[in-house]
Amino acid sequence: MNNVKRSQSGIAAIELAITLPILLLLLVGISELSRALIQLNTLTKAVQNGARFAVVDIYGTNSANTIANPADIKNVVVYGNKLGSGNKVLNNLTTSDVVISQPTNYVIITTSYNFTPVFATLPAFFGYGGDSLSFGFSASTAMRTSP
Description:
three-stranded antiparallel beta sheet
């Protein structure tokens, strides 16, 4: 009986040493995916607010197919207000990332954003790696400018 206990002593530590890195990698991966989805949702809502502002800000003041000032629209998307003051909705988002197009009876707001995870590059093992983990995503919203 003592031989069996002695031969299995330390097995739990070995199991922990094998599974802990895998579990930590899984935990970090899930948290980074969550951050990316939160930032995608924030970007989408900012673009929707910009499209809504483009149409509602001028409602009843101009002809049916006009939109608000494009610089103000870009500020609403990036800063959340038309003055362009305060904190940005997303850190790396700029007004040059926002594209406004106006086909007949619509306004389309599109923006792209580059997501950078906390661990921005893969570690280099055996001469491989060092690749960037950043990736881009975009959001677009169309809203009608006239009935």
